[in-house]
Amino acid sequence: MATFRSTGERGDGVEVxxxxxxxxxxxxxxxxxxxxxxxxxLCEPTGxxxxxxxxxxxxxxxxxxxxxxxxxxxxxxxxxxxxRHPSGRPPLGTLRPLWFEEGDGVxxxxxxxxxxxxxxxxxxxxxxxxYSRDAIGETPFAWSLEEAREGLxxxxxxxxxxxxxxxGDGAWASFxxxxxxxxxxxxxxxxxxxxxxxxxLPTVGITERPPERSRRYTILSTVGMSCQRMPTVExxxxxxxxxxxxxxxVATPGDPRDAARLFMWLGQYPWHSVTWLGHGHTARWYxxxxxxxxxxxxxxxxLLAGLPGLPDPSGFTFGGDAVQWLWLVPVTAxxxxxxxxxxxxxxxxxSADRLIRAS
Length: 359
Fold this sequence. Notes:
Order of helices and strands: EEEEHEEEEEEHHEEEEHHHEEEEHH
Strand content: 25-35%
Distance between the termini: 52 Å
């Protein structure tokens, strides 16, 4: 199937009947049709196709896959043995997308009935298409939705409930209140609060916890990352429910506004880049070394689920999932190279002192 789709008019007899961008701006659903068939593409912002699924034939099905049509960039046609409508069916009715909470997958409804699903794990480079209601068995461009419906149903129900809740009055304010209250108890009293979302989803804020009692350094935490599950976790982790929701934290003895720049960098990264952050992951600073917020000696951060000598913010749950706080610890360029092979080699070198003395 094609590797690039335009979201404008094709001009070659193929009509773009629907385009819809996910709430995070990282994936676009494009539905195309001609007089023969209809297809849906899940595209990256560049237009490159990540996932795709054949939707329907509108003319009699051929006995085998039409490779010439497939290679021409036109919507594929399912063979006779792989469609529930071998004589073809009318053009699609009213279409409505339902994005997964993570934003990496989407369900497509026709007249409020489930028509197709392109999950986040769909990948045309690995011959893994989406699921189609009209499909029978498996082809390179569609797998049977009927055979996958039972497994997909809970995921779609959660997505529907999530977006209904997220669009309700006071949803963000109530979530923010819950997280802030948890941090009051686990870390200390709140200071200033900054916006790190820039008006884009996901909404992310930064809460400051100034020095108090015996703690002589400030702790900063994101507020909002855990309000939605991160994309792609299930592709790498057997128990994604324990790792899909995170917040980031950092400790600093310096100006908290400098350290807060780390959250401006990473707070929305999983959803905008369709990836995830977890224990042992690293991130290389994107700008000149002298601009790194925790000191020019460092070139990036390693994310750790816990660090001796720092508070333990765990114990918060949302959407039935435990939320994991990941500490951002500065590392050198050499340490980033070491971590690329095995982050565990770095652990004996890391402590809270590196954070609270970073400068």
